[in-house]
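[job 4417] fold queue: 2 targets
>>> target A
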Amino acid sequence: MSTKVSRDQLASRIHTQLVRDALAASNKGGVLSKAEEGKLERTVLRDAAAELRRGGAAVVRLEPWVDAAAAKVIGALDSIDKPGRGKGIISVAEAREAVATKGDAGFRIGHAFELLTGASLDGGGVVSPKLQRAVEQLVENQGFTVLSGLSADKPTAWVQKKIEDTLGAWGGDLMTSGKIKMGDETVHVATALLPMKRTKLTEMIGFFDSEGRAIARAHIDRDDNSGELQMRSASLKGKTGSVLAAVPGPGATAPPKAWTDALKTEVETKYGNGDDLGPSIKRSALPSKELLAAFEFAERNTPDGVGLERVSFQGRDAYAIHDYSCVSSVALYTPEGKQLFSLTG
């Protein structure tokens, strides 16, 4: 079984596929009617037909139509055919790049590649049970902090697409990503939000191997009223298990109500006037891992950015986490990560 194929062989097979699909779309008549064109899905054939009509063609005939569509696919093929000694020979990595980045043209390149080589671009194989268990144990042992030390990640387009497709199948869109090293293995980490249910916001965390296959999954639930977080283990199908970590942690107590009420009055005045609530601080200055988890949750899931201030009031400290979305907000926390109150506007 070969894992490479010549660019010209691919181009020839792709042209054959396009002729077959064009004949089927035109009811084997060799001319595409406007009604038939309207039924086409968004493919290179539909785009090519539309361009021919815009160029003044009163009738879309088979030969120029297929040639125009083939030119689009060949352009995509040539863009992934890397220069150097291997130019003109398409590898698995190049075919994967096409599938991941070139839409319908890439799909056709990948399909033709698999037909000509007998190789599967997906690579087959299964997740390493050893790696899977190591990741599960890491999440169980570290809880929220497993997300604190992620390195910048630049997976291949193929792996990136597989990760995003998996998150989509789980019900969310990619929010943040990074990677961790497990011995010699690279584990890709990606987060996504599920649609909010009443007052609960759920963040999914997916862990993926070097091929983009899902290894493990966890969920973080945030109560929008209390600001409390719970991190739970989850199966790859989304069934949640035991609580791995929580914010605030066990034993966290609230300050006296009179102090909290007086602080809220003070903060409402400053916030309403657009004044700073206190000095800006870095995350390294946060006094507990629970408060860090609350800040990093907001940071991962606030596309417009967040801010952090320490608020000293009547001999006690509180911490303000700002959300700079179009409807800005701020939440005040105790040093142990217990939310005192929040304001919007």
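>>> target B
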Amino acid sequence: MPNLDGKLKPHQLGTAKGQKYGTQATEESRDKRWLFDTGGNISILSKSNADHFELTTPTRYPETWPDPKLAGQPFPGPGPMEIPSGAAGGGIPIRHGVRMCFAVESADGTTQKEVCCDLPVAVADVDYDTIGNDQLKLVGAKILWDPVVGSGSLRERDGGGKPGNLGPSSAIKNSLKPFQKGKATGRKHGRSVFKIKNWMIDTATEFSCITKSNAKWFDLELVAASREGAGPGAAEKGYKEYRGITMHFEILGRDGKPKQVSCSLPVMVKRSGSDIIGMDQLRKVNAMIEWDPTSRTGNLIERPKKEDGTPAAPVQKLQPDRSVKLRRDRRIRVVRSSNDNIVGVAAGTASPNEFTIRGLRVGGPVDVTVSYVDGTSEVIKVLVERANKV
């Protein structure tokens, strides 16, 4: 049961709860949906939302503080706690006193529950309130997000986490963000050049970014004067957009084997920080992300084949009282029919990779949605019709 949606970035309706002047204050985030940010170690509350609550300075530094030596240590004061200059925009205050509530589904995807976190948050002048890796780790959840169709899930962890093509930063020991080693290629003064990079995969960023220190190695062409900030915690707004660089990275193919992909979409150039693969690149190469911030493991995964940016929807024809057994190369979580009076479905009767579709009466087409344990899904249109008489 997908509980995330969005055009490119994952959102979910939820609530922010807390107190102001001793009175319980509850605000439904209908106008400010939570944005789930794999590129954020600390969750962010917008200033406009923070005004609803009585917030205080935390007594300890967050466990994901940019300086690992201070992480989890008592905050000496006096004065406000602020993220130091050069990290997440610099000078951003950290406050305590709001609970972020959102929905997480069970590990098998059959049920869903609300969870709430009261970790310290950054308060910033941003458009979206974001839930970062710190909150997901606290509630024991992972994120699965498909930017091609704009659907995904927050799901309970189902084990220790298996190593994949995503892992933690080698430079920041307490970071919960997903990284992958890859390379950037292009041209400089007419010659081919490449640079080994440690890409950070950011679900809260529509447009991929490179730093100025990386951009100087390539001849880049300006294609757009400005864009809005690349992410909710961006230090700058009005990034310039350039072409002339190709990002190379790895995804897990449909055959279960590593697959090298590349993308040459325009990128933003930012002052400092990580080089970012955004959701535009994943959509272009037809991939989705799975990330577990607790084990700091995950994968970029190749999606089912698509046409014009949408999954293919094959048509399966049946006769009344006839059934067909279909097999896939992935473990099936659940199968649903959009009209149980015309088409019946059953999954896992003989194998976790098989399901059965049965025609009950003439009609259709009926959408049968097959959801897999890896977070992907596909739609099959079923048409039930009588056999032609000869």
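[job 4417] complete. Note on B: The chain is about 5% helix and 45% strand.
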